[in-house]
Task: structure prediction
Amino acid sequence: MKTLKFIAAVCALFMTMACNGKKNALIVFFSHAGDNYSVGNISVGNTKIIADYISELTGADQFEIKTDKYDGMAYRPLCDLAKKEQQEGMLPEFEGSVDVSGYETIFIGGPVWWGTYPQVMFTFFKKYDLNGKTIIPFTTHEGSGLGRCVDDVKAAYPNANVMKGFSIYGHDARDGKEDVKKWLKGLGM
Result:
């Protein structure tokens, strides 16, 4: 009988730790609504949809990187601007701030523009030190996969534990919850 009580207590402890661990995660992402390749004009960006799935499945908090710089832009001019920003190393500003100190795990997500995250993500990388944390990259794309995103995260945070990333076609995001669930399960979440 004492053994059963001990096992029950240990199980309760592990369940409490698992639940608390989930709350110790943050999703930092940029998502572009409006005119998008393959899915047309959308009111909720593809990356936001994936971030919402991650949040729902893990309990992680969210910090959405927002800038009005790209609002209302048609797809082709947006591509041209994104390419120019990357070539010139521009770091567009974004709204708001977040305290990352209480989080051990940070999901970092965005669309893939010209092979990597949009430059506004690099603004975040410059402002926030995530070294010593576990970082989990994810992307939405239309053929680039993860691109250079994982390498760029590792370069920005050489002392972080960067885990296996996830990528999904933007046109599959709305039906991608099971894919996200499978990926998270593979990470032990």
User: Anything to note?
Assistant: The two ends are 32 Å apart (CA to CA). Residues 2-22 form the longest helix (21 residues). Confidence is low (pLDDT under 50) at residues 3-22. The longest strand covers residues 134-141.
